Known about the structure:
By secondary structure, the protein is an all-alpha fold. It contains three helices and no strands. It is globular and about 40 Å long.
Amino acid sequence: MALFPFFGLAVISWLYRDELSARSMLIYWGLWLSGLTMVLLAKLHPGFFASFQCVLAIAMLIQLRVNPVVPR
């Protein structure tokens, strides 16, 4: 499976562990686990799970209000 976005979730969780509450971490990782379970039980293409992981990582960054400075 495409676990590359998993590393993004793990890094965001580790870097911002002080800003994220335990409740929100449980919710995000519970959503991750339920997404993995759905993909495995429904025998869906792994790309669905990879895109779901990306959406979760973006949601975490939005919740943390992380706004990267993009040079122009």
